[in-house]
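Hi C.,

You asked whether I'd gotten around to modeling the 179-residue construct. I have! Everything is below, sequence then structure, no commentary in between.
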Amino acid sequence: MSDITDVKSAVDKALQRASRCDADETSENYEVLENLIEDIETHARESFQSKMDVASLLPKLKNARPLLPAELKTLELLIVGDAEYFLKYETDLNDWKREAKRILTEIASVSSVDLDVDGLLHLRALCREARRVLPDLVFYFDQKERASRFEAATKGQIDAVGCRALTEMVEKMIESEKM
């Protein structure tokens, strides 16, 4: 289980490595930075979960009893809070869409002529660029759809099947927090 000190320590390590990346641009430095960013995310998630009153939700969910608004908000933060905050603070969506459109237009242009060796290598490079930006778009829309599904599923009274599914999710969160 992480606390805020672990989060801050992970941030400090990542920022130190980022400075190193600026000074020495190597794949190794950036790979280490990527791993350190994953550590920040893990510590932030664990610290967040430890601040949430997850255990008090379980009896109500197990017995399919109605949740108070504050309990429903806690459940929402646990289940889709990460998605909602990603959507709230994401600023690159239009750039990703514009970049994808540019790449696809260029792919269409390159593929409309005879594909010699140069054209084939150009096409491969464009596909690599598309594979870089498309996962960001997929992730964004996955998060948007996930948050919408949660909102739709919790608009009214949560039925017994929904309570069982939510109980399992919350129990898994509690279990992963203990590890």
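If it helps when you're writing up: The radius of gyration is 22 Å.

Thanks,
B.
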